[in-house]
Structure formats: C-alpha cells, structure tokens
C-alpha cells in the first residue's frame, strides 16, 4: 500500500496539514481529524481511490517544545543514574552493618526494610 506523508504544524487554534507530494493542504482542530481532512484532497490531487493509500502524519513541533523535551530526557537519564548510585550506596550501607556481625533481621530493622530485602542488599 502506498504511504503519503502529511505534515501537521500548529498555527493559532488550528493544525495546518500539507502533503507536498500530493499538493494538498487543509486544516483541522485536532490531530485525530488529520486523516479524514486530507484523504479526499489527496485522492483527488493524485487521482487515486481514497482507500488505496495510508496517510503518515508527521507533527512539526515548535523549537520550544523540542528544547523542553530534550531537557526532560536529560534530567530523566540523570535521575536514573542517581537512583542507581543510591542503590549501590544503600547496599554498601547494609554490607557495612553486616561487617559488624549484625544479624540480617537487625540490619532490616536499622534500615527500615524487611530482613529479606536486607539479605538481598548484602548478597547482591
């Protein structure tokens, strides 16, 4: 099945839709309407049946969005790294208590975790 690319870019309260390959332009309020809005125009411009192609909508996001989402992903990666470091430190704390010959049950109580979790931290 043929795929026709449609770009969608926000302009005020509308999504402006354009298919360069078909020479078709339209607009809609919601991206969920993009397929329906463009299908007839593309079929007419290319002189093909409306059910003979799929529409691939590519959203053109504003630079401010792209910058914010990139920053969000950087922070998420940093948070994962920090969480991993915290887990290693927590395991080290449990091992320090075990080195003092404190029982696993008491380690759990000191750390506010189950004795099973304390055992996992010491063993892992």
Shape: rod-shaped
Largest sheet: 4 strands, mixed
| Average pLDDT figure | 96
Which percent range describes the beta-strand content? Answer: 15-25%
Ranges where pLDDT stays below 50 over 5 or more residues in a row are none
- Give, in order, the helices and strands: EEEHEHHH
Number of strands: 4
How far is the first residue's CA from the last residue's CA?
52 Å
> What does the radius of gyration come to?
28 Å
Helix content: 40-55%
Structural class: alpha+beta
Strand order of the largest sheet: 3-2-1-4
Q: Count of DSSP helices?
A: 4
General description of the model:
The protein is of the alpha+beta class. It has a four-stranded mixed β-sheet, with helices on one face. Helix 3 packs across helix 4. The longest helix has 37 residues. The protein starts with a strand and ends with a helix. The mean pLDDT is 96.
Please describe the topology of this protein:
Blueprint: E1 2-11, E2 14-19, E3 24-28, H1 34-46, E4 53-60, H2 63-99, H3 104-111, H4 115-123
Parallel strand pairs: 1-4
Antiparallel strand pairs: 1-2, 2-3
Helix pairs in contact: 3-4
Give a short overview.
By secondary structure, the protein is of the alpha+beta class.
Characteristic key phrases:
single chain, 124 residues, alpha+beta, four-stranded mixed sheet, 4 helices
């Amino acid at each position: 099945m043929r795929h026709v690319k449609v770009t969608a870019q926000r302009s005020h309260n509308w999504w402006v839709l354009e298919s360069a390959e078909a020479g078709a332009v339209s607009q809609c309020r919601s991206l969920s309407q993009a397929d329906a809005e463009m299908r007839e125009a593309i079929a007419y411009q290319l002189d093909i049946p409306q059910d003979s192609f799929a529409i691939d909508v590519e959203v053109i996001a504003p630079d401010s969005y792209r910058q914010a989402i990139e920053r969000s992903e950087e922070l998420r990666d940093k948070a994962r790294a920090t969480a991993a470091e915290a887990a290693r430190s927590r395991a080290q704390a449990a091992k320090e208590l075990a080195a003092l010959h404190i029982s696993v049950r008491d380690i759990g109580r000191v750390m506010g975790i189950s004795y099973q979790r304390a055992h996992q931290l010491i063993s892992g």
